[in-house]
Amino acid sequence: MTTPSRRDRMTVGRWSIWVVLVLGGLVMLFPVYWVLVTAISPGGLAQGSGFALWPDRIDLGVFGRAFTDQPVGRWLANSLVIAVAGVVLTVVVSLLAGYAFAKYRFRGRDALFALMLVTIMVPIHVIMVPEFVIVSRLGLVNSPWAVVLPTAAQAVTIFMARQFLAGLPDELLEAARVDGAGELRIFLRVVLPLSGPLIAVLTILTFVWRWNDFVWPLVALQTPNDYTISVGLAALNGTFSHPWDEMMAITLLSMVPVVAVFLAFQKRFVRGIAESGLK
Amino acid sequence: MPLHELATAPPGVGGTERVRTPAPRPRRARSQAMAAWLFIAPSLVLFAVFAFAPIAISVVLSFQDVAVFGGGRFAGLDNYGELVTTPLFWTTVRNTLVFTLGTVPTSTAIGLLLAVLLNRRLPGRGLIRSLYFLPMVVSGVAVSLVMAWIFNADNGIANAALAELGLPRVGWLSSPDWAMITLVLAVVWGRIGFCMVTYLAALQNINPALIEAAEIDGAGPWNRFTRIVWPLLAPTTSLLVVLNVVFSIQAFDVIYVLTGGGPGFATTVLVQYVFRAAFTDGRMGYASAIGVVLVLALLALTLLRSRLVRRTGDVS
Fold this sequence. Notes:
Helix content of chain B: over 70%
Radius of gyration of chain A: 24 Å
Shape of chain A: globular
Strand content of chain A: under 5%
Structural class of chain B: mainly alpha
Oligomer: heterodimer
Number of domains of chain B: 1
Helix content of chain A: over 70%
Shape of chain B: flat
Number of helices of chain A: 14
Strand content of chain B: under 5%
Number of domains of chain A: 2
């Protein structure tokens, strides 16, 4: 595939397709661009009089105002705590379970695995009421744990861990056993060091999912200081009194971490999506 | 890979096959089973408390008349009976279908087209792909707020552009029909990248020799696509359609923030109706009944797909 074949040569037809693809890509980029441009334009680039695609003046003071007018700093910090704690728990729990499902024989293994997978079909909205009762009985409402714990064990991530770890050679594990290593030791010294790519994909996907979560944090976190950035943003939108430049500035801030993760780890992120069948 | 399908697939279909694990010597078997349960324990506890328990409680609640948190009265099938006789339920079913029909074929078709075009060598291919992938990481809330601003009736760029072209302004979010179209646009924007990723992965699994052989036989690009690529992509297409239908039926964030289900109930879909029944009206039993119906519909859909896949698999 190194020498360009006849099909790879750029003809007039191919260049026109290329132009269409680039224009389509710019259309896809437009909403993200519009968030940025609205945020940094004084008055939010309102289109009431005339039509403008870029600002005459730039005003970066909007970011300062966003932080002083609203508890945006708190919201971002809450989201970060929830996403990071969620990633750590999900990665640990999924690796352990995925390893057990992939490399051990025990009664009820396949039935339990199937039972976990079925939960993927149940949207959170459907079980939110009993979920909330359970979380409040545990005394977790308004705490980051109210969001972290219910989403920590994910069928998707356990499934991905199982698929990956099933590929480890059994001989490796047997050799360690022959050397007298205990099961936990084998996991820590043999399995874990070989799980780098799996951990990377799980970390990236879980971070993006937890950062973007909306409906469950909306129910579980009820005082404004405990909101995540998504819940806070939606709450601001509901009040209809906020200038658009400030709204878009906060929207932009909410997008920065996930866009950064995407740009830094695009290959792994995309492969993870293709493997998990979930976005 | 096809997770939603796996949930209902029998062993041996699409990756749920038993993992072949060598049998340990009997002496070690017990200690290994014990280790396995210890490894699974953290997940099992979390699943039991935060998934299995609420699911079971929801099913029980659906047969009860529960007005507030706490005790309820057994109500048999009353909730289900009320469901089928409530016009608003059927309105939300209809809206869910319209929303699903608006989002699924469009995002799947655009994803396929882009994947085919961007699977070939092109200058700046990686960068162009990134432009289409990027919306995947933008949260539903952020998507909604940008779209609310772009499609703002008075100051939004969409109406300004229409005015510039001499066209009448549109009530993007205030007219019932346009509100649904705006929602579909917002969701399709976020989902094209996902369809494209899945198709790209499938295209890369097609043996290039097949395409080259057809080319040598004189098949043009259109024939190569319709005769070879499209049939080979059939399992991916059916998987994507099912996944997209599931995503669309479960879609909540964008609808909640962008239209709030309005104007009126014009964009209220089933999951929103559940949310409303539970948290606005405080009717837990009724909300649970809607949820049970919804999950049964989703299960039926994936079962249907795995049946179809098995049948076509038998033929080939």
